[in-house]
Amino acid sequence: MSPIQRRHFLQAAGATLASIGLSQWDVLHQANQYGRVLAQGRPGRKLALLVGVNAYPDKIPNLKGCLTDVELQRELLVHRYGFNPKDILIVSDQEALKPNRETILEAFEKHLIQQAKPGDVVVFHFSGHGSLVRDPNPLKDLIVNQNGVLKTVPNTEGLNGTLVPFDRATSNPEQVQDIMGSTLFLLMAALKTENVTVVLDSCHSGGGTRGNVLFRSVSSRIDGRNLAVPSDVELEYQQRWMKKLGLSEAELQQLRSKGIAKGVAIGSANYDQLAADAPFDRDTFFAGAFTYTLTRYLWQQAKNEAIGTVFTNLSRSTRSTTSGSTGQEPIFAANPKSNDQQPLYFLQPTQPFAEAVVRNVKPDGTVEYWLGGISSVSLAANQKGTLFSVVDASGKEIAQIEQETRDGLTGLGKVRQGDKGAVKPGALLRERVRGLPTNLKLRVGLDASLSKDRDAIAAALKSLPQVELVASNQSMNYRLGRVTAEHQQAFRTQAVSQVPKPDSIGLLTGDLRPLSATFNEPGEKIVDAINRLTPRFQSLLAAEILRAIGGLDVVTGGQSTSVAMQVKSTGKSGGQVRGNQFKPGTEIQIQVKNNTRKDLFIGVVSIGSAGNLRVLFPYWDAPDDRARVAPGQELTLPEAGVTFPLSKTPGALEVITFASVQPIRTALAALRTIGERGGVSSGRGVSPTPMRGDDTLTAVDALLGNVDRNTRSDIEVRAEVRGVDTAQFSMVSTLIEVVQS
């Protein structure tokens, strides 16, 4: 990102969202304020306008995932929140209503403003490019988030964020007919209901492509010079709405400076972050990283949560969706403030939580279903033999479907048992047995910086059984690269805390963010680098397999229907800054509660940002019953003699708790073998050390084998997959950040 672009980010403070009064919400600081959801009366009509723009003309880069976003939102609203399909209007490349500026605005007016009555629910979603224009009447100050602290900065360049329609170009190269944030403010204000949700999956600077990830932003002017100004037709449109609403320029400015017009506004990224248009499932489809994360989270939401709680859990999850690639954090604002205690969309779900929905039942009995609610790691590992439960309105299993094939988000299967008559379009499905392949591998691509050594590196990587070498433009877990001057400049604009040295070799994410701990000194030979990184590949693969076992690609905040996990400071060193942010070196305590009516066997592991895996519990010498937690009981870790200190340098740590209805004896036996070589026992007063290389794969493979055997003891599963019975085994995760206070 160039210096002027970064300044634009800072002053725009989220661009379109800042223009309608949206600022970064310090989710971690305020997480504990949201302990309940306000009781909701019976809502009136539910209306939605969904806009997706993939295909842009001229020199504007096309996007790939915006139409998927629209599909994700539509299916969620219809099948989870009870929207009538006739009340959802779609404006997109593939619809009769194309995403031109006039069409988008007319659709908002006719479908939402003219139809919505007091008490109705309104949803507006936009996926496409965002940009910036110079506002003729800008806000004086804008709110930004700097390292978790809300601040105001002068809007010296008079910026206003925009939504980019298909037809943004005008005959004047200095003008664009984008839809400004101030226009969106007026449209929201015109709605006769307060139950308004606006979702914008776009960003406003630094767009284009980085690695194998697209970003949803274009320059203010196509030629990249200076800032464009809004078109005359846009400013005239605003004047007409100000007249209709009886607002003067001064009154409008005063309202905009206080916040959004009404309801809730949601953005896909913070002011200095990029909204990813990301590839999934080996590039079979693209989607907005945020929209995909948000809609999957809401599909799987097993209990009612306030929007504050949802955003606490989603604050880092969009990053996890793309293997740590984008660093996206969602942002939102509410008016009045009490709306942050409302459920998302101002609605309680009308249907039970699920991961898929039946779309069609063919004459031969083949069931076609849509998998938009399933986690991306489950989707990537999803195999022939995966079993889905068909659930009724109470969430009870009434039939089972065995998957035969899958293409992207569409699966085909046959009813294996239960009431075939209940399997019809609209029926909801849950993963019952997650079918994982027996040969999961780490997908690694090669960066262009290694071009002269490409053949030698490719040969070396192909000799590693844990690694699958993929093309540089395909979806991947990580990218191997050599740091160039251009890389270093990009790392600094990404606020990387530890910038690798030039000419050093290590791992990058798909969009070229470094895993700093994987880089060594400059001048390292290729063979030496591959040998050094081999244990790292093994550890990273183990972490991916662990997440696949649990179906985890969204940070759940440590909460599920089975267990609740909480992390806090012991008070002995360091300290808690806010939420799950801690000072360097803080000793933490983990509390795990059994929320079920059965005994659960509990395990806790942590995964560092560079793939370091630690077993926090059970200790390697622990008997089976040591891991048993009775119904309603709480396990507090660490036990006497063991400490859990966080790193002394800033970074992130994912803590995962797994719960099994049956004992995990094989996994414990593997831990004992590893533990005897330096793991933590119940009697040693030390902190757990990270496992390396083969040990990580051995431990995780033992866990998967244990879970597979436990699954097969209760249900028939195909021989070619390893099964995870979700009724017997579950995982929750939470993210801990080490920050400089």
Describe the structure.
With 741 residues, the chain is of the alpha+beta class. It is built from 17 helices and 38 strands. Helix 4 packs parallel to helix 9, helix 6 packs parallel to helix 7 and helix 15 packs parallel to helix 17. The protein is globular, with a radius of gyration of 26 Å. It starts with a helix and ends with a strand. The N terminus is likely disordered.
Structure described in brief:
The N terminus is likely disordered.
Averaged pLDDT, please? 82
Taken from the alpha-carbon principal axes, the silhouette is: globular
In terms of DSSP E residues, the strand content is 25-35%
**Quaternary structure state of the chains depicted:** single chain
Q: Strand pairing plus helix content: what structural class? A: alpha+beta
Q: Biggest sheet: strands, sense, closure?
A: 7 strands, mixed
Count all strands and give the number: 38
- What is the gyration radius calculated from CA atoms? 26 Å
The percentage helix is 10-25%
The unreliable regions are 1-42, 145-150, 318-326
Distance between the termini: 27 Å
What is the count of DSSP helices, taking H or I runs of 4+ residues? 17
